[in-house]
Design brief:
With 345 residues, this protein is of the alpha+beta class. The protein contains 5 helices and 25 strands. The protein is elongated.
Length: 345
């Protein structure tokens, strides 16, 4: 085999790298460069970290430390087949020592390098948490009901849907997905929302589950970077009727069983089913509630009618026999007396 003399050190070698032997070439070759100290900014409230001029949600602190070290690590442009090993060691809650080992292929030669850096964690409030703490909001959701006051359960559920949606939207990357303030009022509830986009999603989900409708009204609040900045008010209107209400619609008396995007119930006259899209239930009149029912005696049962005692006059009254009626004569059954007649429930 023919050997080549290295012009720098005089040793024999099989090949030259940049006109010198392998040892002389790698003597001054720097595979990696790593700062001795790295400063890491972490939000003390939400755990986001400042990365490449923006706050990001990443994960556990140790994972963030490793990520920051990888970003700060410079590897020579000629390196190929690179393998990186990181070994973080926590000294204090605010200081990590990270050992870095890199294996690579440079001009066909295996190269190994090691370095160590100190990561200093600085805790502060991120931009979104600062906004939330400062009362920032882009939208207001006003939860109301048509023709009545919302119940406590309806207000509680609306707020719960908003909170659940904010958590999901934040996981998807909307860092403005927070509720700045919630105000419970006699006429409903007002929710001050950090994210305009997330607010619209909240309204859609409330309508999907509880029925009703919503409208939006923008208002100009200022300018930013030469553009108009708007704040949106979403006016939620829950359905006028809810489960247990007795209504009169198209000259028929109906018990509401379920109120959402569709209204489901039964015709009290014969017990048959009633269903209609909520937006089509217009002109209906609430005449009573299921809690207004009283117990009375079932006198007798005929083929198409039943005889009961009027709970007020105690006179025997014949009413139409409901579908699937199974009570026995002499027993007590719930009835509801309205301006439009007496009905067995």
């Amino acid at each position: 085999m023919n050997y080549i003399i290295c012009p720098k050190c005089g040793r024999e070698c099989e090949k030259l790298l940049d006109s010198v032997c392998r040892d002389c070439f790698f003597e001054n070759f720097k595979l990696i460069e790593l700062p001795l100290v790295i400063s890491l900014r972490i939000c003390s409230r939400c755990g986001a970290y400042f990365h490449k001029s923006r706050w990001e949600d990443f994960g556990k602190l140790e994972e963030v430390v490793e990520k920051d070290v990888e970003d700060a690590l410079l590897i020579h442009a000629e390196a190929e087949d690179i393998e990186i090993y990181l070994e973080p060691r926590q000294l204090t809650p605010y200081i990590y020592i990270v050992r870095v080992e890199v294996d690579a292929l440079v001009r066909g030669e295996n190269v190994h390098a090691e370095a160590e850096t100190e990561v200093r964690v600085r805790r502060e409030a991120c931009d979104m948490c600062s906004r939330e703490a400062g009362g920032y909001f882009e939208a207001i959701i006003q939860v109301r009901a048509t023709g009545r006051l919302p119940t406590e359960e309806e207000k509680r559920r609306s707020v719960a849907i908003a909170r659940e949606t904010m958590q999901q939207m934040k996981k998807k990357g909307d860092r403005l997905a927070f509720i700045t303030d919630t105000q419970e009022l006699k006429e409903g509830a007002d929710l001050y929302m950090g994210s305009m986009n997330a607010s619209k999603q909240v309204c859609r989900l409330i309508v999907s589950e509880m029925g009703g409708s919503y409208s939006e009204s923008p208002s100009l609040v200022g300018m930013k970077d030469g553009k108009n900045v708007y704040r949106i008010t979403y006016s939620m209107r829950l359905p006028e009727f809810r489960s247990g209400d007795i209504i009169r619609y198209r000259e028929k008396v109906i018990e509401i069983k379920n109120s959402g995007k569709r209204i489901n119930g039964i015709y009290l006259e014969d017990g048959s089913r009633f269903t209609i899209p909520a937006e089509e239930l217009k002109g209906a009149e609430k005449v009573a509630h299921i809690n207004d029912a009283v117990m009375t005696v079932l006198v007798s049962i005929e083929e198409h009618a039943i005889l009961v005692l009027d709970p007020r006059t105690y006179e025997t009254v014949a009413i139409k026999k409901p579908v699937s009626f199974s009570a026995r004569a002499g027993s007590e059954i719930p009835v509801l007396k309205t301006l439009y007649g007496l009905f067995a429930l």
